[in-house]
Amino acid sequence: MDKKRKILRFCEAKIAEIAKNTGVAAVVVFLFLSVVSASTQPIGKWGNGPSFDIAAANGYLLVGAGEQVRIYDISTKEKIESIAFEPVRLFNGYSDVGTFRERTPPVKILHTDAGIIQGLYVSGSHLYIIGEKRFVIADISNPASAFIVSSLAIGGRDVHVQGNYAYVTGGSKITVIDVTDKSNPFPAAYINLNEDVRRLYISGNYLLTGGNSIFLYIYDISDPLHPSLLGTWADPYSDPRRSVSSVAVSGSYAYVVDYHYGMHVIDISNPANPVEVNSVIGQNEPNANDIKVFGRYLFLSTRYEGFRVYDISNPANPALVAVFSDFPGYVEGIYVYQTGYGLYVFETGYSTGWAIVDASDVENPTLLAKIPVPTCDSVVVRGNYAFYGGHNDGVWVVDVSDPSNPHEVIMIKNKGRNTGLAIDGDYLYIAGSWSELTIADISNPEDPVITVWDFGGDIGGEMMVIDNYLYAGGVKIFDVSDKHNPRLVYSADLGFGRGAQPLARYGDYLIFGGQNGLFVVDVSDRTNPVVVGQYNLDMYTGDAEVVGNIVFAVEGSGNLYAIDISNPANPVLLDSTTGIIANKIAVYGSMAYLLPRISTWGGLRVVDVSDPENLKLVESLEGVYGNDMAESNGILYTSEGHIISTGQIEVPLTISVVNVGNITQDSAVVTWQTNKDADSLVEYGTVSGRYTESIYDSGLTKYHTLTLTGLNPGTTYYLRVTSVAGTETVTSQEVTFKTQAKSGDTSVQPADKIYPEKDARISPITRWNNGNAELIVGSHDRYRTVMEFTLPDGMGEIKSVKLYLYVESTEYSNYNHTIELYTLENAFDENAVNWTHRTASEEWDNPGGDLGILIDHYNATGDLSGTWISFTLKGGGADNPLNLSWGDTVRLILVQKVTGDWHNKYRYDRFDSREGENRPYLVVETV
After folding, report:
1. What is the structure's pLDDT at 814?
2. What 3 state SS string does 685-754 have?
3. Residue 560's pLDDT band (cuts 50, 70, 90)
4. What is the Cα–Cα distance from 629 to 637, expressed in whole angstroms?
């Protein structure tokens, strides 16, 4: 049977099946034909990922994480101490198991499209980024509005900038890039080497780096376009297993890191003849990686530990003064930063995240925060959310409702290596090596609830759920009908060999794979699996998917197989391909998508499987790889974060990350990104929806920057951006901004304020409230605050409602807590209310006030004295926005929620009451 006839028969069958139930056959034909006609292409990437380098400058921290640069404000001690990964919902009282998210998100995330970022370097107002695929320059003159200026298709591992030149390591050469014009960098010269090098260091006119056979190269770069080799120092051990990972210089001494072994001290006073004068060397003692010199101290990052500090007052004889061991893992980059409030060390760990360490007392460094990053081994998708199983720590929940702009919302922390995920109904099952089985209720994906953790022994790899029975590798079967109390009901070695795991389902049969073959297992008796068929393949690192009665299997070491299992006891090979290395497979429509685990193994391969007896490779997508892959609604998701259209939907031109920054009295810089190379247009004006001015750039780019000039001071402007690529045009939503006022112009346009009709603080005392005392929240949750507002009769549709509170003072500001805002059930008497009574005669149904819906929350950190804080009652940003209308009365209660350190419960914040000058108020915004 030829391909067209098979496709037509498939269409006819699907049309008949769906039309019988829905009556929409014409739509099905269109969608299926689009699968056949369109090509596979990337539509987005969740760029957060492994962390290799970190830097700080001008009060901001810049972290490389995957393809992102995440920028944090660290201009004050309070701000740097507010950076944390804090619990949202802990499991059974554990301090490190539950759901977590960043307390203080980045002020800006740069999406670089550079591949995994390897190196960062700040020079002046620009950040230079080197990733596996690209070299990128970003303008960070205003870090909160940072934007990408340009990029080059040059990948590498480290970058250093001096003058108008950037020096980038990559393979066996160093590329000298002219960055005089930041918008148009270009390669200007090369330093060719005989071996790969990792990091480099520039000191004056000297460039230093090291490799495998030569531990130190010294180049003269006084003429950047004609670098000349001055001297070398060879590997003293002639050991091909050893290499140099980093270099630093202090005075006339170079400190050369012998990767995993320690460091060498090299006298470079005569660059033509470097001489070793000392060393700190041992087998993984210290397990060294990166190095930085700061004054008389040398900081050495050490794997599975953290870092070590050496006093180099005598530079030829480093003396160990401190060992910081609170950041175990694959430690990579290290950066030392002096602030006006202390000395800090920032470190990255490939799969463990990054850390902030207070080193003000250099002999006793103290961990302040550890922020995990997602390096992922597994992925599943449900609706608008993708769940990524982390190589360490937990499962990341990512909003993929807009595939071109995915973003993480929360992490389910189980402390495991999460190699397998399965979803059944409202529950997520996590196979966590080291942390065993975890089950989480994901009925609300943005607020998952762990129901079971660390159950059932070591578990890893794929899982399948059938009728409340979970099948896992081994073979293990769990009864999960009670999500809080699973039971292991079967465990046996059925001879599948290493890597045994369930890969696909065929009715009452499961397809298992292992080193000893591909197995067909009858599970009609759910707790008594019976092997009925086998095909000899090495499936240790392979995968399979069933379509109809055909198993499509990738062997892992290479090849795709189409195997007929219509007779489960006698699997029959129909066809196979050769020369394709893949570890995961997904089949959609008439195409199979084959994913390799390693980036250099050829990328995603697309095979036409419409005729299982004649498999045909039809397409390749380089640079797409990962440990796992999931398909949902014709879109592929890899564990490396790639989001790929299978061709069912055409990928439109999209605009994202529209930003207005560097705003002055008469100018502003507008930046945005597109997913394709396109031109740039900004239309703007002073009236919403009316754009009387415009600025245009015909240059094609994914990173768009236009500067608006001749603006009026203190004026609100409205704009939209448009980009055109070929025949496609896309226009953004309207964006608004306001220029700076003229000097001395302090006029303010006050919003109409709605003040409370009554408010009070309630505390566990027997006497009644006096009705005019200041409001308090906190102190072991002893103090709560209640208030009542009535919205007046007004005009227009209400868009948002916000509550503002003035903080009179903060007690125990060194601790933190969360203030939660709930609706208050039942009325209250502000002059006769306490912890037990809402009026002089009526008690609360629940002591402390009758809580209704959680509306919003505020993370209170540092001393808030003299500031206003706000909560959203209606509109974007609220946890659970209320549906308020004109004339409504709303009663509110604020309570303390303590997370993290138990000492945080001591904190409390005092607010002005409605009798005070800075009394609470609501602001209503209308459409």
Report:
1. 85
2. ECECCECCEEEEEEEEEEEEEEEECCCCCCCEEEEEEEEEECCEEEECCCEEEECCCCCCCCCCCCCCEE
3. very high
4. 6
**DSSP letter assigned to residue 783:** B
| Rounded Cα distance, 712 and 392, in Å | 52
Q: Closest Cα partner for 546 from 577, 499, 507? A: 507
CA geometry: angle 168, 171, 177, nearest 5 deg: 25
Q: What are phi and psi of 410, to 5 degrees?
A: -170, 160
| Closest alpha carbon to 469 in 454, 487, 485 | 487
Amino acid at 741: A
Query: What distance in Å separates the CA atoms of residue 738 and residue 854, rounded to the nearest whole number?
Result: 33
Instruction: Indicate the SS3 state at residue 680.
Output: strand
Contacts of 861 (CB under 8 A, 6+ apart): 78, 81, 82, 103, 104, 816
pLDDT tens-digit series, residues 838-852: 988 899 999 999 999
> pLDDT for 365-418, tens place per residue?
999 999 999 999 999 999 999 999 999 999 999 999 999 899 999 999 999 999
DSSP structure string for 323-343: EE-S--SSEEEEEEEEETTEE
Residue 625 has pLDDT above 70, yes or no: yes
Q: What is the pLDDT of residue 661?
A: 85
**CB-CB contact of 533 with 494 (8 Å):** no
pLDDT in tens, 317-327: 999 999 999 99
Is residue 407 a contact partner of residue 398, using CB atoms and an 8 Å limit? Answer: yes
Q: How far is CA 454 from CA 411, 451, 457, 476, 637, in A?
A: 17, 11, 8, 15, 27
Backbone φ and ψ of 236, nearest 5°: -70, -10
527 burial via Cβ count (<10 Å: 0-12, 13-18, 19+): exposed
How far apart CA 49 and CA 640 sit, in angstroms, is: 8
Spatial distance between the Cα atoms of 36 and 38, rounded to a whole number of angstroms? 6
Task: Give the percent of the chain with pLDDT over 90.
Answer: 76
pLDDT, residue 743, reads 58
Give the residues across from 575 on adjacent strands: 562
Predicted local distance difference test score (pLDDT) of residue 793: 80
CB atoms within 10 A of CB 124: 10
CA nearest neighbour of 248 among 266, 272, 224, 275: 266
Integer-rounded Cα Rg, in Å, for the chain is 31
Check if the beta carbon of residue 99 is closer than 8 Å to that of residue 410: yes
Burial classification of residue 575, based on how many CB atoms lie within 10 Å of its CB (0-12 exposed, 13-18 middle, 19 or more buried):
middle
Beta strands in 426-539 (DSSP E): 427-433, 436-441, 449-455, 463-466, 469-472, 476-479, 487-491, 501-506, 509-514, 517-522, 530-535
Backbone torsions φ then ψ of 144, nearest 5 degrees: -70, -15
Q: 280-319: per-residue pLDDT in tens?
A: 998 778 999 999 999 999 999 999 999 999 999 999 999 9
